[in-house]
Amino acid sequence: MTKRKKAIDPAVRVEDLRELIRRYEHAYYVLDQPEVSDSEYDTLFLELRRIEEERPDLVSSDSPTQRVSGEASDQFAKVRHRSPMLSLQNAFDEAEIRAFDKRVRGAVGDKVVYCAELKIDGLAISLTYGKGRLQRAATRGDGTIGEDVTANVRTIRSVPLAVSPAKGLPDVFEVRGEVYFPIAGFERLNREMEAAGKARFVNPRNTAAGSVRQIDPNVTAGRDLQTFMYTLDPGGPARSQWDVLNTLDSMGFRVNKNRRRLDSIDEVIDYHAEWQRRRHELEYEIDGMVVKVDGFAQQLELGFVARSPRWAIAFKYAPEQAETVVEEIACYVGRTGVLTPVAHVKPVIVGGVTIRNVTMHNEAQVNEKGVYVGARVVIHRAGDVIPEIVSVKKPKPGWKMPTRCPVCGGEVVREEPYIAHRCINPFCGAQRLERLRHFAAVMDIEGLGYATLTQLIDRGVVEDPSDLYRMSKDQVIQLEGFADRSAQNLVDRIAASRQPDLWRFLFALGIPQVGEATAQLLAADFSSIDPLRTATEEDLQRVEGIGPNMAGEVHRFFHGQGAELVQKLLAAGVEPQAVEAVGDGPFTGKTFVFTGTLEFISRPDAEALVRKLGGKAVGGVTAKTDYVVAGPGAGSKLEKAQKLKLNILDEEQFKALLPK
Description:
There is one protein chain. The protein is an alpha+beta fold. The chain is built from 25 helices and 24 strands. The protein has six domains: about 10-65, Helix hairpin bin (Helix Hairpins), CATH 1.10.287; about 90-315, DNA ligase/mRNA capping enzyme (D-amino Acid Aminotransferase, Chain A, domain 1), CATH 3.30.470.30; about 320-425, CATH 2.40.50.140; about 430-495, Orthogonal Bundle (DNA polymerase, domain 1); about 500-570, DNA polymerase, domain 1 (Orthogonal Bundle), CATH 1.10.150.20; about 590-655, Rossmann fold (3-Layer(aba) Sandwich). It is about 35% helix and about 20% strand.
């Protein structure tokens, strides 16, 4: 009698297949070391898909078959990052990287280890995992708000849909890295474009960014994008950047093997030079090297400046250059009336991008370089981004800024000690246009570009930002390029911006010397718009980071023409959202500074907790600081607190202050 073969439980077989496929995908897409043939892989994949089609109850979101859903999205939702995706300061030569090293050692001492990683020319991406499963993928955006591109990123096979989290990580953690287009894949795509009679893509970086933002995830899936990951938040068991890279590697993420720990800035410079020679051996494009202070304790001690860490820098390679001819030098008027000369050049390709215009900033720079109409100039892209004239073949100084505004004909003056020339006509149309464009951009009102704003100004519909909130759909629909639906969409987007965060409102006003970082300082200190409108210069100078000149500009704005604009905006229904006042929490009126490494909570989370409980968390120690919470690796802040005889707590003592 023949023995009957025992039936395999589909639920068991599905899990076996998924484990095998994940293993083979990791070997192929992450390690570049295939373990099975394509036909063997395809057989397993088809078997898994067949079982899932027969048993839909067995389908899971992290199954390899679910990478491409096939569902098209008509928009990308906005995503707020759990912590800002910071930008890096740049160094372009040996002197600048040595200056960075000097600043680092001046702050934390001479014993510094650096972690050097190749700087991938791609698109920054953030991946959020919950209980080991990919929950969300987002672009960098402006560093605070990005776009949800989860459906597209799921199609990138080196991005794990599920991982086994390293010991010490919470249920929810974030991984950051770079999405890039391998050179071979990019060239193959361009051959396909040519065969189809379509225009070629210019460079891999921009094509990768466009691929991640495709409406249809299937398009992204067909682009063969790749990734390298380099950040883990929180760090879990890691105590250094080197540990982070090893942890990510062990969890199954694709990590660049071309990295090195270096004991001196001389070694950093040598490693940088080595890869400058070898960069064309790589299957991806790089534009430099990222140099980070390796130890987390020293990173915490160094801290941040504005939107960049003091403990990391991008050591860039010399950009490509090209020669062309200056055809015209024209002046453009900004929102504060400053005239900026721009050299219009004969179009030339530099680093894969066609350059037609080069900003010269001011009259002095034009003449220092000797630029003139007809000059042969050498152009590069500073930081591989901004076009810049490097040299002039036969320099000829003597170019003069116009004495009359090229837009309104108003008088142009240079006010000492400033180097810039400015149109002093407050009704200049160019200034009005730029102020409106700045306001719309900061307030995140999509659809209010230069063309639309120019029409609104010319038709007398809008003179200042407050008029935007009184604008009707009927007025918009009269504009060129608008129909019923698009007009309604614009009116709706403007209405949706009526309740901005206070810092965003302040930044959008265009107050002289007040950028995003300063606006956030003012918002945090004054909490709401009313006390700021009546603040004296002395009140303003009490805000950490606000000096006399800046305080004077802010005070003049709120007691001059700016006062009328603010009142008109408030009357039009704009309601800046006050920084949340927690009230009578246990930390009300208390100021905390955190330094060193914390074990049970990240420093940003600790600072957020203090604010939630009514207190203030700041970066610098002063005589007014109530508590300094010091963990392992605390340095100069702890020393200063000791000298000032402040209340110094360890982590356990801080936890004891928290409400039960």
